[in-house]
Write a structure and sequence with these properties.
With 172 residues, chain A is α/β, with parallel strands linked by helices. Chain A contains one helix and eleven strands; from the N terminus they run H-E-E-E-E-E-E-E-E-E-E-E. Chain A has two domains: 34 residues; 128 residues, Sandwich (Immunoglobulin-like). In chain A, the strands form two sheets. In chain A, strands 1, 2, 3, 5, 8 and 11 form a six-stranded mixed sheet that branches. Chain A has a five-stranded mixed sheet with strand order 4-10-9-6-7, with no helix packed on it. By secondary structure, chain B is mainly alpha-helical. Chain B is globular and about 60 Å long. Classes of the chains: A alpha/beta (172), B mainly alpha (564).
């Protein structure tokens, strides 16, 4: 098969580009430590996650020095906690979110950040992030979940460490 | 002799397919404008919809354009491509009409279910499930039956293409498969391999579940089956565009295709790689191990190869055409192209925009940067460049050339037609760039109230403001609908004009490539081999993850239906 010289060059350049893209993602995973949401969160009852001991009382739990677990239940059309009461964590903390749905598929996107996951009935979305800066974040459900989907929002408040009241959280 | 004189039966089939496609296009396009204005809050009070009906409109827009317009246009176009390139009528017009009938009834059922969202209380009410219809959101069973009939109808048309090819093969035992037929058959091999996923999802799970025969389904499993189909479907949209770019665009430019064998290589790569990539739509889904996402990511990146090769070959062929027309210089040849011919301008601009769509697709495919844009308005910004332009604008451009051959009537309103592709291009440039930038700022897709209760200040735009992004989206959507109606006026004018008023000036001949099929190895035409490898790759990518999802019970963890 006859392939033009320029086309051969283009082919090689294309393959290098592809290899480069894959390399950046491998670096992201291995070097920069970007973990994907995966199956490590386990499963829960698809219509009643609170039946599981982990989700019986959703909220913020301290698990170590500067380390917190946040359990969130998503439902049509709110996050608990998050929608009524904001999720409050101290600045500089490492926070592991565990998010489950009790009805349909939702999304949990902390706007403008890479804290973004699908919330699928029966599965627990688990991901760990660091909050370096004291500020407030807008949380949007970013998967259509029914007639009032657009009302499903929430807030995360990252507060200065000195303003954070340890009594707000329970010991894990 | 024009096509309609040579193949009157096939021409009628194509006309009916295009007719349904264009009606779906018109309705879906108007829905798009309603959406664009509602979510950007322009003239919202004057619009006939409320926030809940926004999702009815959104479902209609997605289903009518991404599923109905595309499938009807493609199946019709492939009837033309098969008969023209094999130079014989279809194996059976009657069987093809059965396929058309199935798709038509399916469309009518699904469309009725969706449109009832405007008039609650009707028996089919509730199908606001969007075109991804993720369980446990539940639509009326008519919606799922409609989807199934649409897919089955396309399978029947695929069978007609294959049977026609088999007849041709019996008469031509040693000839190479004509290029357009090769493209039709490989596209349909991919379509059969991939649409099995959605067929199983709908027929095995969602229909019995929506009828109440089974109480629950596994949302992750059904969603994974959807995406098993949901990525290859974009190549089902795209490959007919590629067929036009490879076999028609060089001719429109005044030249001929560079290389037939490389075009075959590209289509073979799509057969192999289109399906084992679906998990890249589920990068941030819980319940799927990271390794499977990684495999899908590398396959997706490899899929860049056939598109990059296409960019080279098509641009080289167009340049060849321009030089045949007297163009010269490094870039000066661009001026020699027939930019005032709607078929050329539309196809070329669609290809150009696909390049931009390809780049934003690379970002989507980047597993870890996907976190930033997943389910933001970036994503529809991306696919309005691909299906919304690479496919849609190519389809319109091809229609300017093909519909006269299907009807025997010269194209009317030629001036309107010659500016139409530019109006579409400008509209899409405005809308899509703004959607991409809005996505980077975190604006969600699929929502009637993008900024929610937080207000625009919660969204950090890289530059400019949310208000400017909204203005561009609203303006772009308006221009796109203007362009759509310009196209429809040309089509209706042509279709309804009296035959024989003036001579048909269109030339349906397609010149042979510079490097013909005989320069490529025969193995390229071994469709059984490529199908076999494609199936093995699918089993490797999907066997274990789907196996683990059904291992805990095929309906577990199960969710009960939530009607919407």
């Amino acid at each position: 098969m006859e392939i033009h010289r320029f086309e051969k060059l283009w082919l090689v350049a294309s393959l290098l580009l592809i290899a480069g893209f894959v390399a950046t993602i491998v670096y992201g995973a291995v070097g920069a430590g970007v973990a994907m949401v995966d199956n490590s969160g386990g499963q829960v009852d698809a219509s009643d996650p609170t039946a599981s001991p982990d989700f019986r009382d959703p909220g913020v739990y301290q698990t170590g020095d500067g380390e917190y677990d946040v359990y969130v239940v998503a439902r049509q059309f709110s996050f608990t906690p998050g929608s009524g009461t904001p999720i409050r964590v101290p600045e500089g903390s490492e926070v592991t979110f565990h998010i489950a749905s009790r009805d349909v598929t939702h999304g949990f996107n902390v706007v403008g950040t890479n804290l973004n996951t699908m919330v699928i009935p029966g599965q627990v979305a688990q991901l760990t992030v660091e909050f370096d800066e004291a500020r407030s974040f807008h949380v949007a459900c970013n998967e259509y979940c029914g007639a009032a989907h657009h009302d499903m929002t929430g807030t995360i408040e990252v507060v200065p460490a000195e303003d954070f009241d340890e009594s707000e959280v329970a010991e894990a | 002799m024009t096509y309609v004189d040579d193949y009157p039966g096939a021409a009628k089939l194509v006309r009916w397919h295009f007719g349904v496609a264009f009606i779906a296009f018109a309705l879906g396009g108007v829905f798009g404008l309603l959406q664009g204005l509602y979510r950007t809050d322009y003239f919202r009070e004057a619009l006939p919809i409320d926030a809940t009906q926004y999702y009815t409109v959104l479902t209609g827009h997605g289903v009518l354009l991404a599923l109905v317009f595309t499938t009807f246009f493609i199946c019709g176009m492939f009837v033309w491509a098969t008969t023209r390139s094999l130079d014989r009528p279809l194996y059976s017009d009657r069987l093809a009409w059965v396929g058309f009938g199935s798709m038509f009834v399916g469309t009518a059922l699904a469309a009725t279910a969706i449109l009832n969202g405007f008039a609650p209380g009707l028996p089919f009410d509730s199908a606001d499930v969007l075109y991804t219809f993720y369980a446990p959101l539940k639509a009326h069973p008519a919606f799922y039956f409609g989807a199934a009939l649409l897919v089955v109808g396309s399978w029947i048309l695929g069978a007609v293409y294959f049977l026609t090819y088999r007849e041709w093969r019996a008469d031509n035992p040693d000839a190479r498969i004509p290029l357009q037929t090769f493209m039709v058959l490989t596209t349909f091999i991919m379509w059969y391999v991939s649409s099995v996923g959605v067929a199983v999802e709908v027929v095995v799970f969602l229909i019995p579940w929506s009828l109440g025969w089974i109480g629950q389904v596994d949302p992750l499993l059904t969603r994974s089956l959807f995406w098993y189909f949901g990525h290859p479907v974009v190549y089902f949209w795209l490959l007919p565009g590629y067929l036009a770019w490879y076999t028609l665009l060089p001719k429109f430019a005044g030249g001929r295709l560079f290389s037939d064998p490389l075009a075959r290589v590209v289509f073979v790569l799509f057969v192999l790689l289109s399906t084992p990539v679906g998990f890249h739509h589920q990068y941030i889904d819980p319940g799927i191990a990271e390794g499977f996402k990684f495999i899908a990511m590398t396959n997706t990146m490899m899929l860049l190869l056939p598109s990059l090769l296409t960019a080279f070959t098509v641009v080289a062929s167009v340049e060849h055409g321009a030089r045949q027309r007297g163009g010269d210089g490094y870039l000066g040849w661009l001026r020699a192209l027939p930019w005032d011919e709607p078929a050329f301008a539309g196809t070329a601009l669609a290809g150009l925009m696909f390049a931009a769509g390809g780049f934003s697709g690379m970002i989507n495919a980047g597993m870890n940067i996907n976190y930033l844009i997943h389910n933001t308005i970036w994503v529809p910004g991306h696919f309005h460049l691909t299906v919304g332009t690479a496919f849609a604008l190519t389809a319109m451009a091809v229609s300017y050339w093909l519909v006269p051959q299907l009807t025997g009537k010269p194209l009317r309103h030629r001036r309107l037609a010659s500016i139409q592709p530019y109006v579409w291009f400008v509209g899409m440039t405005l809308m899509s760039n703004a959607m991409h930038r809005g996505g980077l700022a975190g604006l969600p897709r699929r929502t009637a109230e993008p900024v929610g209760d937080a207000g625009a200040s919660a969204f950090d735009t890289v530059f400019s403001t949310i208000a400017e992004i909204r203005l561009q989206i609203a303006l772009g959507a308006t221009l796109l609908v203007v362009a759509l109606f310009m196209f429809l006026v040309v089509m209706l004018g042509t279709w309804l004009s009296r035959p024989g008023v003036s001579a048909l000036s269109v030339n349906g001949h397609i010149p042979e490539p510079l490097s013909g099929a005989s320069n490529g190895p025969r193995v390229l035409d071994n469709l059984k081999l490529w199908t076999g490898i494609a199936v093995v790759l699918v089993l490797l990518a999907y066997g274990v993850p789907l196996g683990s999802m059904v291992a805990d019970g095929i309906l577990n963890p199960g969710a009960s239906p939530f009607p919407v």
